[in-house]
Structure formats: structure tokens, C-alpha cells
Amino acid sequence: MNEFSLIKRYFADASYVRKDVLVGIGDDAAVTKTPENQMLATTTDTLVQGVHFLPNSTPQDIAHKAIAVNMSDLAAMGAEPSWISLSMSVPELDEEWLQGFSEKLKQLTEYYSIQLIGGDTVKGPLSITITAQGFVPEQSILTRSGAKNGDWLFVTGTLGDAGAGLDILKHDLNVEDYEDKQFLINRHRRPSPRVIAGTVLRRLATSCIDVSDGLLQDVMHIANTSDVGVIINLDKLPISGALGRNVADLEQALTYACISGDDYELLFTVPEEHRTTVQTALDSYSVPYTCIGQMTGATGKLDLRLDEEPFEFKEPYAKGYQHF
Amino acid sequence: MNEFSLIKRYFADASYVRKDVLVGIGDDAAVTKTPENQMLATTTDTLVQGVHFLPNSTPQDIAHKAIAVNMSDLAAMGAEPSWISLSMSVPELDEEWLQGFSEKLKQLTEYYSIQLIGGDTVKGPLSITITAQGFVPEQSILTRSGAKNGDWLFVTGTLGDAGAGLDILKHDLNVEDYEDKQFLINRHRRPSPRVIAGTVLRRLATSCIDVSDGLLQDVMHIANTSDVGVIINLDKLPISGALGRNVADLEQALTYACISGDDYELLFTVPEEHRTTVQTALDSYSVPYTCIGQMTGATGKLDLRLDEEPFEFKEPYAKGYQHF
Predict the structure, then answer these.
(1) Tens digit of pLDDT for each residue in B233-247?
(2) What is the pLDDT of residues A57-95, one digit of tens each?
(3) Yes or no, beta carbons of B122 and A46 under 8 Å apart
(4) Which domains does chain A have, with CATH numbers?
(5) Chain B environment of A33 (Cβ under 8 Å)
(6) Rounded to an integer, what distance in angstroms lies between the CA atom of residue B194 and that of residue B287?
(7) pTM of the model
(8) Which of A3, A27, A48 faces B324 most closely, judged by CB atoms?
(9) ipTM
(10) Contact criterion met (CB below 8 Å) for A65 and A47
């Protein structure tokens, strides 16, 4: 079977269909129509087996994560997802694997109302690259660079679960309770990007990023590009029951929450005058959120506090996930 | 060094800068503005070492080819290139390699007036995925599906050089003459996509594709999606002097021209009433072209002729490049 048959067979039909796609899969390029007055957000993420997912991941897990990390990037810009392109490197033509992957892909395109508009399939070690596009009005773009001294620091959902889930899979963390174990593993394998929250935060948040590399590393991306500092109240960090119940102590929980990545929650800053509006808006969409700190004038300074006292991690933890 | 430092150091500055990029590299996604009344063409191509380029290719060669194959896809849609995203998998942090790659990348973005708007760098076997975007007015989109019975079949440039160049590098073809050898190798390593020709053909060609998989395979993409057949006059195929002088006989030259891929010329169909206009327009941009046949009403039928006689290749040549 050649590349074309492969793509045709598994991916030509593996997508939700949108009216703004004039030419879809099957030509030299896709042709799409961006609505008037909307800007286009574009992001690319590559997942490599052994680096971003474990070798025993199912094709469904891999499809889920590949889509999720890209949706999360769009969410962090306040963009509404529209189209994706998929480039896959696969070591062999495993029909069962491709079937599982493309079925999950189709389900996810329906969930996010996005269309698969093209891609490429090559032979090689398993890796998945997705380029995702979405719309955002020019005045509503969320960036990392707008945080101001005094803005409140918020995060959606809970932190650290995905890191704990990965450690369970790597046998570095033992969790007896079945439901807790499944919850944490699921948070690693099947993250839920905050697409709705991203659009809710338009014009309200002054900056936004998704937590992919770990809270401390990601908050410093905001601080450094915004020329501000940050105080994080560690006692306020949203820790799930499943994580809290299965770690040795508070410091281990805080370590997961601060250092481990892949949570795909949104971390954002809100000026005092928008604080109530943001909270009401997120409540109305049932998006969980927590205020975990405040931005300061001390450019580039990270100030960790536990019960209002300065805090330092005892271990020389790496500041987030390093790809090299 | 982590992913961010890597990207920042080598790629943040490795691009031409455009005014329609509102947010470039360094945030969760890029944000760009598509001109009013223009549609967006998007294409993705992945090049893998050992499959799409030889292990001894220079970083400059790889950058060139990765950009060229994507520009060629946009050209085949009649689109004007605007932005690219780059996802790289590299086995190690080889600074000299990255330097060479990013310098060439910058030079090419300047040549095509395109901006690198984002990407991802992961650790793994060497491979390069580029997603390229470009503009095309809705009424000017060139597809594979509009060819009509009676339309003339044209191709730009010459065919078969890239295949011969690859065979020289693989020691499957011996070329003594230094200039011929370099010309053919260069056609393989540094293809010249027909971006200007693509925009010239808007509203004039009824269908268009780039020759990446080999003439016979690519013409059948047009024939099958357009529900027509095709007569190709093999004696008319544009064979470069360098190719013609260094093959054993006419059949070997025709084999390269028909079967080997990677020429990145445009193959397109033109109705009789636009034939003169197309020729004049391409002449005015100094784009070489040749009329090599005509579309027929015999849906899906490929009719090869040499000096007006039916022709069959003696060898059981594969019909174009198969990825698996």
C-alpha cells in the first residue's frame, strides 16, 4: 500500500466537516476561509514515542494527546479551534493501530468541531505532528506578555495530576486505590484542554499560557515576557483529592503541582477590576479555577510562599520539563 | 540547553518579518491576519532522513528541500506563500548543524517573503515537518479536479533530472561530465518550486498539480479526480541536456522523466481558448513550459505515445515513488 492509499483509507473520512473548508484532504494543499475580522492562530506540536508518550500508549491515547496539546495552545491564545493538519511518522502499516488512531481522531474533531484538512504520512519512528489553526478577534488575542504589577494569578482545574499519572505508569509512584490511580493516569493520557475558558478570558485576562512545562516554568514565561515578578501562595495551589491522598507529604504534592508538566490547564493574570467578572464568567461555564498568587513589580522574581512564609523546595528539582 | 533556549537561539531570528504577523514565535500560538477576500491555502510535508534525503545531506540541503516541497504545493494551488511553521526532530544538539540549517532557513524565508511563525523542536531521529500557508483568491484556486476532455497538458521546466541526481548520489548512475553531474544533483537537492508560475496560472489553468511522485502518477491524480483520460506524447517530454547526454538511451531518459519524482515542476491543463494567453504569460515571466499531451474523454485511461505510436515501457517500472 502506498502513502496515498494509506491516507485515503484511514484519514479522508476521519473528520468532522466544516463549511469554511473549500478544498480539504486530497489536493496539493487545503483551502479554507477565515471569517471577516478574525485573526488566525496557528500552533504546531510534535509528540515522539518515548519522549512525550510511553511506548505502550494506545493509538487512542496518542490521538487524544496530540489533539489536546494543540487545542490547549489555541485556548491559551483565546482562539476558537477550526482546522488541523496531521503529519505522522509510523514505523509500519499496522492497520489495527491506524484504525484505532483515526477513529479517535474523528471523534475528537467532532468534539472540537474542527476539520482535518491535510497532512502527510511517512515511514519512520512513531511520531505525530499536528498543526492546529483557530480564530480570534484582533482585540481579544491573549498573549504571555500583558501581565501587570498587581494582577491576580489564576489557574484552571488542578495541578500535578498528570505528573503523578506518568510516575504511576513508570512505577515511580505507587497508588493503591483503583479510582485515584485511573484518575491520575487519565490526566496524563487524556488531558482536557480549556478551550471554553480560553474564549471566556478574552478581553478580561491580561496574559495567559497553558501549563505544559510545569507551573513554575510557565509562570516565569509570563513574568519574563511581561516584565513583572510573581508571588505564588503554595497553600492555595489546587491539588486534586486523588493526588493529595496518594503522596507522602505536602511537599511531594507541591512538587508535582509546581514542577511536573502536561497538566494543560490555563494559567492567567487578571486585573483587580475584572476579577469578579472573570470568576462569574468561568462559574457560568462550570470551569474550576483558583487564585494562586499575584504579579509584582520585581521583574523576573519568583516568590514562593507557604502560609505567608517564604518557601524553598528542599530538593534540587529541575525547573520543569527539559527536552534535552 | 532546553527546548526554549534552542528555539530562541536558532530560530527566533531566522526569518523574514511580515507585517501581517501579529504574534510570532515565542507565545503559545502565532496570530496572523489573512487579507480580505483571500482564502488560506495550507499544506504540510515531512522529510525523513533516509527516506526523503540521504544521510549525508547538508543542513542547507535539508532546509532548502523542506521549504521547497511546501512552496511547490502552494504553487500548485495558485497560492502566494505567506507563513511557515517548522517542527524538527533532531537526534542531538549539533550547534554547527543548527546554525547551517537556520541560516539557510532565513535566506529562504527572505527569498519567498514568508515568515517563520512557530514550531516545535523534539529529540529523535532527524526529520523536518513544515506546514506552509499562503493566500489565494477564492475564484483563483487551482485544484486537481477541473481538467476537461480536450484540455492541453503542460509541464514547466524539465523532467527526470532529480531522479537522475538521486541515482548519481546513490552510485546507480555514472555521469562523467562535472557540470552535468552537478546540475542533476542540484535538481535533486535544491528543487526550484514554480511559485510564480502558480500565480500566473490562476483563472487560466483548469487543473494543476506539482510533479512530486513522478509524471505518470501525478497526471493520473489529475485524470482520476477530474474524470478524464490523458494522452502523453513522450517525444515531447522536456528532457534537459544534462539528462539526455548521460543516459544509455531514450527509454532510460523517458523512464526518469515519467517515473522518478521530486522534480517539483507544475503539471497543468489548459483549455484551447486560454492556450495562447498561458504561453504569453509564462513567457513574460521567463518560465519554461512544454505542451506534452491532451486530456481525453476516456476516464482514467493513460495513453502513452512515442512518435504517434502507442508506447509501453519494457521494464516493469513501479508507477512512481512508493512510500511503503
Answers:
(1) 999 999 999 999 999
(2) 999 999 999 999 999 999 999 999 999 999 998 988 888
(3) yes
(4) 3-140 (3.30.1330.10), 152-310 (3.90.650.10)
(5) 39-40, 138
(6) 8
(7) 0.93
(8) A3
(9) 0.93
(10) yes
